[in-house]
Structure formats: structure tokens, C-alpha cells
Design brief:
The complex is a heterotrimer of chains A (about 325), B (about 750) and C (about 170). Chain A is α+β, with helices and mostly antiparallel strands and about 325 residues long. Chain A has 13 helices and 12 strands. Among the domains of chain A are: about 5-50, 2-Layer Sandwich (Uridine Diphospho-n-acetylenolpyruvylglucosamine Reductase, domain 2); about 225-325, CO dehydrogenase flavoprotein, C-terminal domain (Enolase-like, domain 1). In chain A, helix 5 (about 90-95) runs antiparallel to helix 9 and helix 12 runs antiparallel to helix 13 (about 310-325). Chain A is globular, with a radius of gyration of 19 Å. In chain C, a hairpin with a 2-residue loop joins strand 4 and strand 5. Classes of the chains: A alpha+beta (about 325), B alpha+beta (about 750), C alpha+beta (about 170).
């Protein structure tokens, strides 16, 4: 691992001040940063430790929203009583990600900042516009089965965003609170992660030196139920091939409101708004779910090895909607 | 009397005697040694698949903190190659020395080696070494590419076999199938990364190496450095398993030892996980064509199995997939053949059940296909072709209980309740599939030396250079000593895994048990003879008696006239520390029998078509490997092999980019091996436990490989039963099963 | 934590204090030293294993303040003042810890290389009030600990037989 300076910050402002430009990285859990620094893909000259910041609370706001400190671990968030009770999709998504020990380290802010698993990004030498803008995208025409997208891709990059947590947050709706040299601002969660477009090296809406301090979840949809379904090869400890986080509210058998977000298939945590719209007012039947699933993948672009993700993602949607609307004993 | 003791301790379910060391974190693996003044080495690995090194720029790396030296092809001592002979016990699979020249034959080949004061500094500097290559534009990255443009395959003559008239018999068979199976490159991925901790003193090398064969390793290092073998010691008392990848010395160990001698300090080199996919061997990809002819009664009339695998550009490794095919079933007209073709990969090597694992995937899938064609129960079809004679050797099997394995496995599994119609068995959202396959592995036995001491303090000591790679060798050696002496296991000290001990076998091929235990037993008896000779001598407990009149049971010498003296007293009386015995035992007896192990897997899979989820939910395996020495560790071997077989069936494939030839999933997150959650709901292992005394006095044939064989086929056959899809290419992935 | 005069590439080592297996330890570490490398290389506590160095196998799992983490993905400097327990700290007074005894009894290992990590996760899983006690729940919670020898059946048995004893 390359040599870097280390500074531990004791306040958000001190962290932002210590973070000095592109050559700096914040470290929270470290599960992404150290992985990539060891293989020389991330090359920080200075690492600012944010573990000492007072961002460990999960706070119910008066308006019904839930404010989550950036340092709350994936484990703590997954088992937080409010999350378990009101945001099942988030709890389940968190628990489907990584492993027990990684979830204990990984933080809310860090998970939002996860980097892609594309092997061509990680190998340090293949063409990768994310790592070396302008070099090309070796994943196109290469091995692109597991961690490559069919939605939101561009000719410059097709890597999936690997997070499960973010899929749930995309479904719920959230704001990302950030602090930078110019003070605080909030970014809509759906605007936080950027499509690769022509500049896949720009992955998120943070400015240099900005730090995520909180994620504020929208209030739960009244009377809704939610769930997360992750499909993969082995039964655990694998990034999603396709996943679906859904929130559904029904009146009788009619769908009053619906949210669908997808993982493993998009270049960012993918909100399927058109599919949601197609569900509202429809009966909660397999036929409606299938129709919505089809709409969700309208315009999807399959690559050499990942065309199966389109039907697989559709299956994830249908099954998760079925679970979320099933009669309960 | 000995029989009674043996009956108690041989076959018993005993906890491992080395268990507490492992559980307390006290067992020392190769990279756990931190020698005074030790430096750390980290490799620079080629980032092209084929080509030559134009230039190595060390300017930045040399300025990095802690860097001691950086080796590469223009800065590395001249060494010798090993003759690489199995008979001479100096075999390797990759014969080319590290840094021999500026050529690159595969991605991940060592092109430089940084030595620094800490691991982190060595790694950081290694990433700062910049290497310019002239890369070949079209490297050969896969078996298909090799077949397209890799030139003529090379036929492996020695492993082929033919009898009768296989081709004409096939052509005239009433029922025929002609099918081709493809298996991917697999990587062993033992939990412990390959590691070498090397140090030199007065020109002698001591190497802590993660090795499945310290004698071979010692001999190789002696050859490479031009030393007498006595000047090299290789130690591997604990190894984080190997599955074949640690059988032979790989370039990293030579690089570490050479670097240590050059810098004049101990050097530790751990092969990073990424390069465990490239430079420490792999199971090569295979393409296997199987043709089966059968009559309407389900009797085989012809069988051919022609296979090709990739090897490296510099060495030839044959994956002998037909090794079981030639004798598992009764068939007069049969051929197996193997060929290799070069690819830009490191040299392949044996991976658990080499040949048999991919070979039985093909054969036992094809048997299922033929059974289907004949409308026969797949189990009945196999039984119809049962043989007790190895037709390839024209010898009877020493001991075969395959029919019992079929019957007991089927009964435990409930095979009789199988509805043969595809997709007919359902449970909620899931379709259930049941499949089965036979297992098979050759039983081998090598030369072995051993030493046993009966010590005056009431303990015994046994040593042999062979290794315990996690199979339980420490424990069964102690059981062997105990079975003859009656000394309890907790009073028996066993030392293994050091080339300075009496020569013992490589831990591989399932031959360690059958090889080592007879030598241990012989050495134990020899120690008892020494004890008797002391006892009958002047001042001895039985002074003047005849040795032949004395017997040794339960730790006591007796004369048959009612006098009985504990061996500790026999020694104590003479002020002797111990009575020693040494032994040399030969390989397997030749010419009378074919020695093989057998078994059957019965597998249940569950396929949820609504979410394309496949899992193995239940496994019953009945295994015929002769006498079981330790029930606990034996069952564990088969259970572990079942897990690895599930990995082979559903997950594992080492993949290379067809354009660049670079590996794409060479890490433990994207090369999928089974995790806890993939463990079937139930796994039942039935150990048949019929001693094979024609093979050795313990009647044991070894149990490491056999559980892997046939497992992938049993899963694939179950998948076919559930889905109707016949998957002939591993791994079986969900996209192959999704409806078109 | 305080800076010391040792320098590598112009960057100083830091002095940190750990409560390691019940003992207070003051050590000097560079910023980039992982907790795993500190344990193994500097403190020679080699019971904790390096299986991948990238958080993909669980062999390096240790407890930090009672929580199991992958020590390969944590900087040592981030643990100033933390309570760390490794496999060497499991047993007390020379007796095997109940999880160690269960692993011995159930033969819940083969090569032993993943074993420390398995046991550290297992003890955490057994003490967690959130993780269920069914076989499926334990399998899922333990899935970050790969055992290539495939001793999963026996590991599960060992974990379940230790329930209530830790």
C-alpha cells in the first residue's frame, strides 16, 4: 500500500479543511478505500479519518423523515428499530450486502461512495475511462456478465453501482447532506450518483473536499409494505446480478402507490419510475407486475454476456412485488 | 490382542491431536514465521499475456521507503533448472526458472521482485516498478482460441488406452450418443496464499514453504541452487491446504530463496491472492467428446472419451479425464485419449481429483443421457454395466463395493420415490430435481520411511516427512502407533512436514494414508523389537529370555509365563531414554490387482424458475475407500469434497479476456467458491468401511479426492431432471437454465 | 495517539495504544499499516490469518470493541484506544474457549487456516441479539468466512452446539 499522510478529524469542518483536494481521501470504514489503495487503483496522498466525527445517530425528524448519520454502520442501520419497522426494504438490502464483518465496518456514507467492481477498472492496465479518462471501456466486448449493467450504460462505461443499500434508498427517496468548504448543502439521492455518459470518471455529485454527513430518508409511504430481493449465483456474499427493492401501498387489491428500484442492472442505483406509474391504479396481480417489469427494462441495452439480466431483473421485480402485496397470516 | 486394540482405535471418531494448536492460533504456517532481520518480497507481475520485456524502470521504485533490492531478468543470480522427475522426486510443473529471460508466457508471470523492510513497503514499491513490454497482438487466452489458432494439439500417448474396436462397435451400436462436454479453468484457491520464508546460514537453505511435499521441495531447491540435498531443509508442519496447488515448487519459492541469499537476510514472500490464479497452477479447461453405444438391454457396447486441455507455452500438463472411464464400467470396446494445446497461461497442475473430476463430469453426464435415451433409471443403467474387473489392466479390483454404495446411497436418499418425468417434482415455487453419479479414484501407495520411538516417560514419538494438509494425518499416524502399542493418543507426539524427517510422500492423490501408515506401523514394530532386545540383554527385565517369546500389548512386555513389565520400566531399569524403530515400506503391490475406490452421489437440487434460483438442497454420498482410519476426519474429507463439487458444478470458472489474455476474475470476490449459505440443508456421508488388505495392512485406500469425482455430474443430472436442460458446459449458470 | 520521530518517505509513524487481548499495548505504526499487518508482522500474533487482504474471505476477522471486523481493511491508526481480541485472546487460563472446544469436538476445520476467522465471527454471531438462531440464519451470517476445505457442515454444528455457552 502506498504511503500516505494520515489525519484524524474531530469535527466536520476540521475534516473538510484537512481534506485537501483530489489527492485526499476520507476514510470511514475503509472497506472500499483500502481495497483499492492496496492494488494502487486509488492513490491518496492524504487520508482523513472521519471516525471521530459525531455522525453516529439515527434521528426521527418531526416531519416523519429519518436522518441517518454518515458514520452509522451498515449493521447498526439494518437493525435500527425504526428501519426494521418502517423501512424493511432498507434493512433487507443492507443485510443482503457483503458479510457480517464487512457490514460492521462499512458506513452509511461510505456505502454511498462505493466504487465499481468492474475487473477492467480494478486491473490497473485495461482500458477504463473511469480510471483513465479517454482510454476506452474494455468491459464492452469483454467479460461483462456479473458486474455490468444493462440500464444507464454509455459507450464509455457499463459498470454497475455495486451497492444494495443505495437501491433501497433510491426506492425510499432521500436527501444526501454534505458539507464542504462552502458550507452545507443537500443533494437529492437520485441526483447523487451520476450516469457514466461521456465522463464516467465523475461518479457522484460531490464537489472536491465535500463530505457526506447524513442521509435523510423520506417519510415512509403511509400504509405501504416494502421488501428487497437480491438474485445472484451463490446464496450469499456476492454482488447482485439483479436486485429489486419495492415499496407498495394498496387499497383493497388496487395499488395506490409504488416504488421500484433496481440493483445489479444499472450504472447507478436505478429508480424505475415509469414502471411505478404503470402500477398505480392497477390490481395487485402477477399480470400487472409483469407489465411493470417489462416497462422497467424498456430501452435496456444487453451486452455480450449479460443479456440475461433483463429477464432476471424482471423476475426480481415480479417476485418482490408479489411478496410485498401477498396476504399476510 | 493387537486386533482388539486395533479395532478400538482404527476407525474411531477421534478429535485431531493437532486441533488445539490450530484452535489457539499456535499452529505455524509458512508466513507466520518472522525471523530476525527478515525482509519482505513482493512480486511485479506481467500485465501482458505474451511478449517480451523491453524495459524495466526502477527509478521511482528504488526511491521508495524501505526498498532493499529489486530483482528482474537482468539482475538475478544464475540458477539451474530441476530435471523435474517424479521418480527422482524433484518434479515441478513449471520448469522455467523465474527471471530466466525477458520473455513473458502468461499474464501474472513474475517479471520483477521487490525486497523491502516491510510487506507494505515492498508492495508499494512493486506497484511503482514500471515495465514496458512488446506484447503479442493475439495471445491465446482460452481453449477455444487455442483450438482455433494454437496449432496442432499434442497427443499424450502414455495416458491413452484402447481395447476392442471402439469406433466400429460404436457405429454398429443400436443406441448411440455423441456428446461434447466443456469444463472451465478452475483455481484451487486454498485459504492460505502460497508463502515462502527463506533463510540461509553458511550456505545452507532453510525454507518454510506452504508445501504438500517437503521432500520434493527440498530436492528441487537443491537442484536449482546446485546444492547437496542435505544442505536444504524445507519445513511445512502446517499448511492452509493446497488441493494440488502446493504439490510442487512454483517460481515464487525459488525467487524468495534466491533473493534471501542475495540480500543476506531472511526473506518472506507471500503470493498475493490475485496471482494465485496465474502463477501457482490451475485445473486446465477441457473439451471432452464422449460417444456411448448401448444395446436395448442397457449394456454398453462401445465407449470413447477423447479429451483435450490447454497447457502452458513452456510445459505440458495432461488433464487425464479418461482415467476413470477406462475401467469404471464393463465395456469391451473402449478408447480414451488425451491431447494438449498451448495457451498463454501459467502451467496447469493437479487440482483435487485431477482428470477424474472433469472426466467424470463428462462420463457420468453422458451415462445419464444414455439412460434417458434408453428410458432406463440412471441407477439401473449403471448397475447393468457393473464390473469387478479392471478391463484396462486385465486385473480384478482388489475390493469393490460399488453395488453396496449404489444401494445404500439410494436407500438413504429415497431414490425409489423418484418420478422420472422431468420437472414433475414440485414444492411451492420450486421444482425439485434428483440426480446421481458414480465416483471413482485410483488408490495409490508410494515408498515411505518412518521413525517411531517408545520413550521412557511413557510417551511415544513418530515422525515422517509427509505433511498434514488438513486431512488429519497427524491424528491417524498417532492412531496407527496406538493401535500397535496401546499407548493412548494424548501420549503420542507426531512430527510431520519437515524434509529432515524420514522420507515421506507428497500429500496428494489420496495416497498419504495408505503410504504412511504401513511405514509407521513397521517402525512401531521395529521399536518394539528394539525394546525386546534391550529387555533380554544383561540387566534387562527379561534378561536371558528369547525375543520371540516376548509379546508387546497395551504398553507392556510379557513372556507368556505370567510376567509382564511396562515398557517404561523396561527402559527405566536400563537407564535408556527410548527404543527406536525405523522402517521403509514399498509402494503398492503390482500385478495381482487393480486398486481403486468407488462410490455414488445422490443429489437433490431445487430450481425456482420464477427467480431463476438454483441450489443444491440435499446430498447423500456412499463411499467405498476401504478401511476408515478416523471416522471424523474421513467424513469431513468427503463433506468438503461435496462442497468443492458444488462449487465446480455451479460457480467456479477462472476467466480470461479473449482480447488481452488478462485474467478478469482473479480475486476471491468474483471467483465464486461456495460459502456457508450454499451448504445443502443436509449432507449425509455413508462410509462403507470394507478393509482392503490386499492393498496394505490397514486396508485403507485414502479418501481425499473421491468425493469431488462425480459430484458435478450428479448436480447436472439433477438439474436436467428438474429443468429438462442438459448442461454440458460448467459451471451451470442460471442464464443457461432460464427459458428462452 | 502521538507522532514519533521515525520517518518513512517523510511520513512519521504514530504511537497508538490498544487494549489487546486484555493487555494494554503501546505500538508505533505507519498510517498505511493495516490492523492485520500490525498484528502479524509487528506483534507476531500470527493466529489471525491473511487469506486475501481484500475483505473477500474473512480469515483475518478479529473483534474490535466486541464487534467482528475484517482486520485487513482497517488501518491500525484508526484503532487508537480500541479493545481488540484475536484468536490468541479467546481462551482463558489455558482452557479452550467453548467455541474452540466445539470446533475440536465437531471437527469444524481441516487445514485450520480459516479457523480463527470462523471462530471470531461465530462468537460474534452467537452474542448478537439480532442474528437468528436457525441454521439458515447462522449460515447466512457466517457467509463472509470462506472455508475452502468445505467444513461448513461441521462449523455450523460447532456454532450451534456453543449456543448459550458464550
Amino acid at each position: 500500500m502506498r504511503n500516505f499522510e494520515y489525519q484524524k478529524a474531530d469535527s466536520v469542518n476540521a475534516a473538510v479543511t484537512a481534506h485537501a483536494g483530489q489527492a485526499s481521501s476520507f476514510v470511514a470504514g475503509g472497506t472500499t478505500l483500502l481495497d483499492l489503495v492496496k492494488i494502487d487503483i486509488m492513490q491518496p496522498e492524504r487520508v482523513v479519518d472521519v471516525n471521530g466525527l459525531p455522525l453516529y445517530d439515527v434521528e426521527a425528524l418531526d416531519d416523519g423523515r429519518l436522518k441517518i448519520g454518515a458514520m452509522v454502520s451498515n449493521t447498526d442501520l439494518a437493525y435500527h428499530p425504526t428501519v426494521v419497522e418502517k423501512y424493511a426494504v432498507l434493512s433487507e438490502a443492507l443485510l443482503s450486502g457483503a458479510s457480517t464483518s464487512l457490514r460492521n465496518k462499512a458506513t452509511t456514507g461510505g456505502n454511498v461512495m462505493q466504487r465499481v467492481r468492474c475487473p477492467y477498472f480494478r486491473d490497473g492496465v485495461s482500458a477504463c475511462n473511469k480510471r483513465e479518462p479517454g482510454s476506452g471501456c474494455a468491459a464492452i466486448g469483454g467479460h461483462n456478465r456479473s458486474v455490468h449493467a444493462v440500464l444507464g450504460t454509455s459507450e464509455q462505461c457499463i459498470a454497475t453501482h455495486p451497492s444494495d443499500m443505495c437501491v433501497a434508498m433510491a426506492a425510499i427517496g432521500a436527501k444526501v447532506l454534505v458539507t464542504g468548504p462552502n458550507g452545507e448543502r443537500e443533494i437529492d439521492f437520485l441526483d447523487f450518483h451520476l450516469l457514466p455518459g461521456d465522463s464516467p470518471e465523475k461518479e457522484h455529485a460531490l464537489d472536491v473536499d465535500e463530505l457526506i454527513t447524513h442521509v435523510v430518508l423520506d417519510a415512509p409511504i403511509e400504509g405501504s409494505r416494502s421488501t428487497y430481493l437480491k438474485l445472484r449465483d451463490r446464496a450469499s456474499y456476492q454482488f447482485a446480478l439483479a436486485s429489486s427493492g419495492v415499496i407498495v401501498a394498496t387499497e383493497g387489491n388496487t395499488i395506490r402507490d409504488a416504488r421500484i428500484a433496481l440493483g445489479g442492472v444499472g450504472t447507478k442505483p436505478w429508480r424505475a419510475r415509469e414502471a411505478e406509474q404503470a402500477l398505480i391504479g392497477e390490481p395487485a396481480t402477477e399480470q400487472s407486475f409483469k407489465k411493470a417489469a417489462e416497462i422497467a427494462f424498456k430501452g435496456a441495452t444487453p451486452y455480450e454476456h449479460n443479456a440475461f439480466k433483463i429477464p432476471l431483473g424482471q423476475q426480481a421485480i415480479v417476485r418482490s412485488l408479489t411478496h410485498a402485496t401477498a396476504a399476510r397470516a | 490382542m493387537t486386533d482388539k486394540i486395533q479395532a478400538k482405535i482404527i476407525g474411531a471418531s477421534k478429535p485431531r491431536i493437532d486441533g488445539p494448536q490450530k484452535l489457539r492460533g499456535e499452529a505455524m504456517y509458512a508466513a507466520d514465521h518472522h525471523l530476525p532481520n527478515m525482509a519482505y518480497a513482493y512480486g511485479v507481475f506481467s500485465t501482458v499475456a505474451s511478449g517480451t520485456i523491453d524495459h524495466i524502470d526502477l527509478s521511482k521504485a528504488k526511491q521508495m521507503p524501505g526498498v532493499i533490492d529489486i530483482f528482474h531478468h537482468d539482475h538475478f543470480p544464475d540458477l539451474y533448472r530441476t530435471p523435474s522427475s517424479f521418480a527422482q522426486e524433484n518434479k515441478v510443473d513449471e520448469t522455467r526458472l523465474p527471471f530466466e529471460d525477458g520473455k513473458v508466457y502468461y499474464p501474472g508471470q513474475f517479471v520483477a521482485l521487490v525486497v523491502a523492510d516491510t510487506f507494505a513497503n515492498a508492495r508499494a514499491a512493486a506497484y511503482a516498478v514500471k515495465v514496458d513490454y512488446s506484447a503479442d497482438a493475439e495471445p491465446i487466452a482460452t481453449l477455444s482460441q487455442a483450438l482455433e489458432r494454437g496449432g496442432e494439439p499434442k497427443t499424450a500417448k502414455s495416458s491413452g488406452h484402447s481395447r476392442g474396436n471402439p469406433d466400429s462397435a460404436y457405429e454398429s451400436s443400436t443406441n448411440r450418443i455423441d456428446v461434447t462436454y466443456v469444463t472451465p479453468m478452475e483455481t484451487h484457491n486454498p485459504m492460505e496464499m502460497h508463502a515462502s520464508t527463506a533463510s540461509w546460514e553458511n550456505g545452507d537453505l532453510v525454507l518454510y514453504e506452504a508445501s504438500q511435499g517437503v521432500i520434493f521441495a527440498r530436492n528441487v531447491m537443491a537442484k536449482v541452487f546446485g546444492l547437496a540435498p542435505e544442505r536444504v531443509e524445507v519445513r511445512s508442519p502446517f499448511i492452509g491446504s493446497g488441493f494440488g496447488s502446493k504439490l510442487w515448487i512454483w517460481p515464487h519459492a525459488i525467487a524468495a530463496a534466491a533473493a534471501s541469499r542475495e540480500v543476506g537476510r531472511p526473506v518472506q514472500l507471500v503470493v498475493p491472492r490475485q496471482q494465485m490464479f496465474t502463477t501457482t497452477g490451475h485445473r486446465p479447461p477441457t473439451q471432452q467428446q464422449i460417444r456411448i453405444g448401448a444395446d436395448d438391454n442397457g449394456k454398453l457396447t462401445a465407449l470413447t472419451h477423447d479429451s483435450i486441455n490447454t497447457t502452458s507455452m513452456v510445459d505440458t500438463y495432461v488433464e487425464s479425464t479418461g482415467s476413470c472411464t477406462k475401467s469404471l464400467y464393463d465395456c469391451e470396446n473402449l478408447r480414451v485419449s488425451h491431447a494438449t494445446i498451448g495457451a498463454n497461461h501459467g502451467t496447469p497442475t493437479s487440482m483435487r481429483a485431477p482428470g477424474a473430476a472433469p472426466g467424470l463430469f463428462a462420463l457420468e453426464s453422458a451415462m445419464d443421457e444414455m439412460a434417458e435415451k434408453l428410458n432406463m433409471d440412471p441407477l439401473e443403467f449403471r448397475k447393468a454395466n457393473y464390473t469387478e474387473r479392471d478391463q484396462s489392466m486385465d486385473l480384478p479390483f482388489s475390493s469393490i463395493h460399488l453395488m453396496e454404495a449404489f444401494d445404500k446411497g439410494a436407500e438413504k436418499f429415497g431414490w425409489a420415490k423418484r418420478d422420472h418425468a422431468v420437472g414433475s417434482m414440485r414444492d411451492g415455487d420450486e421444482i425439485i430435481g434428483w440426480g446421481m453419479a458414480a465416483c471413482n479414484w485410483e488408490a495409490l501407495k508410494m515408498n515411505c520411511d518412518a521413525r517411531v520411538s517408545l520413550r521412557a516417560d511413557g510417551t511415544a514419538y513418530a515422525s515422517c516427512a509427509t505433511q498434514d494438509i488438513g486431512t488429519g494425518t497427524y491424528t491417524i499416524v498417532a492412531q496407527a502407533v496406538s493401535s500397535i502399542t496401546g499407548i493412548p493418543l494424548d501420549k503420542i507426539e507426531v512430527e510431520l512436514g519437515d524434509s529432515s524427517y524420514p522420507s515421506g510422500p507428497v500429500s496428494g492423490g489420496s495416497w498419504a494414508t495408505a503410504t504412511t501408515l504401513p511405514a509407521i506401523a513397521e517402525a512401531t514394530r521395529s521399536a518394539i523389537e528394539a525394546l525386546k532386545s534391550y529387555a533380554i540383554g544383561d540387566g534387562g527385565a527379561f534378561a536371558g529370555a528369547k525375543a520371540d517369546d516376548l509379546s508387546f500389548d497395551d504398553g507392556k512386555l510379557s513372556d507368556g509365563d505370567g510376567k509382564s513389565v511396562a515398557y517404561t520400566d523396561v527402559l527405566g531399569q536400563l537407564k535408556l531414554a527410548n527404543a527406536d524403530g525405523e522402517a521403509h515400506t514399498p509402494g503398492a503391490p503390482q500385478g495381482e490387482y487393480s486398486f481403486r475406490s468407488f462410490g455414488a452421489h445422490f443429489v437433490e437440487v431445487r430450481w425456482d424458475p420464477g427467480i431463476s434460483r438454483l441450489r443444491v438442497s440435499r446430498v447423500v454420498s456412499a463411499i467405498d475407500v476401504g478401511q476408515i482410519i478416523n471416522e471424523k476426519t474421513s467424513a469431513n474429507q468427503v463433506e468438503g469434497a461435496i462442497a468443492m463439487g458444488i462449487g465446480m458444478a455451479l460457480f467456479e470458472a477462472t476467466e480470461y479476456d479473449e482480447r488481452s489474455g488478462l485474467p478478469v476474475n482473479n480475486n476471491y470476490a468474483e471467483y465464486l467458491v461456495p460459502v456457508h449459505a450454499d451448504q445443502p440443508d443436509s449432507v449425509d456421508v455413508i462410509l462403507l468401511d470394507h478393509p482392503d488388505y490386499a492393498f496394505n495392512e490397514f486396508g485403507a485406500r485414502g479418501i481425499g479426492e473421491i468425493g469431488v469425482t462425480g459430484m458435478a455430474a450428479a448436480v447436472a443430472n439433477a438439474v436436467h431432471h428438474a429443468t429438462g436442460k442438459r448442461i454440458r458446459e460448467l459451471p451451470i449458470r442460471l442464464e443457461q437454465l432460464m427459458s428462452a | 495517539m502521538s507522532e514519533t520521530s521515525t520517518a518513512a518517505g517523510g511520513i512519521s509513524a504514530c504511537s497508538i495504544t490498544l487494549q489487546l487481548n486484555g493487555q494494554r499495548r503501546e505500538v508505533e505504526v505507519y498510517p498505511w499499516t493495516t490492523l492485520l499487518d500490525l498484528l502479524r508482522e509487528q506483534l507476531h500474533l500470527t493466529g489471525t490469518k491473511k487469506g486475501c487482504d481484500h475483505g473477500q474471505c474473512g480469515a483475518c476477522n478479529v473483534h474490535v470493541n466486541g464487534t467482528v471486523i475484517n482486520s485487513c481493511l482497517s488501518l491500525a491508526v484508526m484503532h487508537d484506544g480500541d479493545e481488540i481480541t484475536t484468536v490468541e485472546g479467546l481462551s482463558e487460563n489455558g482452557e479452550l474457549h467453548p467455541i474452540q472446544q466445539a470446533f475440536l469436538d465437531e471437527d469444524a476445520y481441516q487445514c485450520g487456516y480459516c479457523t480463527a476467522g470462523q471462530m471470531m465471527t461465530a462468537t460474534y454471531v452467537l452474542n448478537s441479539s439480532h442474528i437468528g438462531d436457525s441454521d439458515d440464519a447462522v449460515r447466512e451470517a457466517m457467509s463472509g468466512n470462506i472455508c475452502r476445505c468445505g467444513a461448513y457442515k461441521n462449523i455450523l454444528a460447532a456454532v450451534q452446539s456453543t449456543r448459550g455457552k458464550v
